[in-house]
Amino acid sequence: MKFDMGQTTLSGLVKKTHGSSSDLGGLVRQLVHAAQPLEGKFNGAGKAAFDQFKAHSDDVGAALNSSLRSILGGQSGMDSSFGQGDQESADNARQTMAAANFDAARFSGR
Asked: For the stretch 24-33, what's the b/e string if a residue is b when 16 or more beta carbons lie within 10 angstroms of its beta carbon?
């Protein structure tokens, strides 16, 4: 199995994740607002569930935003690690090449 990723893949992912999910809490509040016409239409367990969701919508939004911040932090950390690994690999290759004696490897019939 080959794992090949470009240098900017993770940084691009971080930007896309951040841009598409900047405020999930706001989307949850929009959902609650859009559901307002349904208020009073439920009875029993449905009403209790709707009221509980409405009462905890800010908590739900905050939890979603917090989770996404953690995901973004993980993506940023992976991007940094991959960048460092790429740089270390290039540095190691340069050091090895500098220490190699290419003249000794030549095969010539003298």
From this structure: bbeebeeebe
C-alpha 102/C-alpha 95 separation (Å) is 14
Per-residue pLDDT in tens (0 to 9) along the chain, 110 residues: 656 667 777 888 888 877 766 677 778 888 888 988 888 888 899 889 888 888 888 888 888 888 888 888 888 888 888 888 888 999 999 998 888 877 777 776 55
Q: Determine the residue type at 7.
A: Q
pTM: 0.59
- Type of residue numbered 81: S
**DSSP states of 17-46 as a string?**
HHHHTTTHHHHHHHHHHHTGGGTTS--HHH
